[in-house]
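User: Hey, quick favor. My workstation is busy. Could you predict this chain's structure for me?
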Amino acid sequence: MKLIRLAPSAPAPKHGTALALGMFDAVHCGHRQILLAAKQQSTARAIACAVLCFSASPHGAPALLPEEERLAQFAALGVDYAAVFDFAELKDLPPQAFFDDIVCNALHARAVFAGYNYRFGAEARGDAALLQSLAAARGVDCFITPPVMPDGAPVSATRIRAALAAGEIEKANRLLAYPYYVRGRVLHGKALGRTLGFPTVTLALPPHGAPLAGGIYYTTVSVDGKTYPAVSNVGVRPTVETGGACNLETHLLDFSGDLYGREVTVTFYGRGRGEVQFESTDALKAAVEKDIALARAFFRREGKKICENA
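Assistant: No problem, here it is.
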């Protein structure tokens, strides 16, 4: 177990925790309800707010957020400590041992928080009802969050992955409760955008992350505390390259300068079209000009809402 301190002045866990339990691989709107409930109780009881999660999905599903981004999301929601386990550390523990040894003895839980569909213990034999029973036996308060249904169906990481894979970025953002983003250092690309007259910054997509459908997206780029409207291409550039890796290439609409080697955040708000192999570079250039015009129209229409939710 890695016990990561997220808040410098947090109360020591040994004095008790309000402990949120779950995978939290997306920190989506359902996860946030659990975490906010834990934070409210930790504040009321003057104890640490903690989360128990795994470094990777027990089911091998691609991560929606890398670990460092999940930790950043936890900290922003007021979590004081994150207990991050490898699944192998816990997979053989029976539910009773998991609750006694980990939840109570290692993490000093005074109150536990989980979703309605939470499973735990060897072979996932524990469920929310058993968690409530085990907590009652140890004098630990237990709070179970009902399903969160932003569009009439329970939110889940599986649904978010499916939305991203289909290019349904606005749906994914509703389920996440924040806009999907990719953070990384700008790579030295092949300057193909510059030769067309549209210089881009290139980021590698997370190697083990959830797949994002290829195509044109309306995005912003944040660097050094400033945010710029942009248009991004996710894909392999079939018109100008064969067998290329799937990258994220982004043209900032109102920026000039060199960002090589800088850390930037590309945030996704809408999708223009799918990836297309054009007959010529002239046809590609004409399409990019249209993409940029549509991106500008998108930000004129949605810019105020994007800024308010940033």
